[in-house]
Amino acid sequence: MVKPMTDTGRRRAGLRTRPGPSLADVAARAGVSAQTVSRVSMGTANVRAETRARVLAAMDELGYAPNSAARALRSGSYGTIGMIAHRLSRTGESRTVEAVVEAARAEGFTVTLVDVESPSSDDVSAAATRLSHQAIDGLVIIRAETATPATLVLPPRLPVVVSDSRFVGHHPAVGADQTAGGRAAVEHLLGLGHRTVHHLAGPEDSTPAQVRAEAWRDALEAAGRPVPDLLRGDWTADSGYALGREVARDPDVTAVFCANDEMAAGLMRALHEAGRDVPGDVSVVGFDDIVLAAHLWPPLTTVSQDFAEIGRALVDLLLRQVREGTSLADVHTLVPVRLVVRASTAPPAA
Amino acid sequence: MVKPMTDTGRRRAGLRTRPGPSLADVAARAGVSAQTVSRVSMGTANVRAETRARVLAAMDELGYAPNSAARALRSGSYGTIGMIAHRLSRTGESRTVEAVVEAARAEGFTVTLVDVESPSSDDVSAAATRLSHQAIDGLVIIRAETATPATLVLPPRLPVVVSDSRFVGHHPAVGADQTAGGRAAVEHLLGLGHRTVHHLAGPEDSTPAQVRAEAWRDALEAAGRPVPDLLRGDWTADSGYALGREVARDPDVTAVFCANDEMAAGLMRALHEAGRDVPGDVSVVGFDDIVLAAHLWPPLTTVSQDFAEIGRALVDLLLRQVREGTSLADVHTLVPVRLVVRASTAPPAA
DNA sequence: CAACAGGATGTTAACGTAAACATCTGTGGG
DNA sequence: CCCACAGATGTTTACGTTAACATCCTGTTG
Question: Mean pLDDT over residues B30-34, rounded?
Answer without folding.
Answer: 91
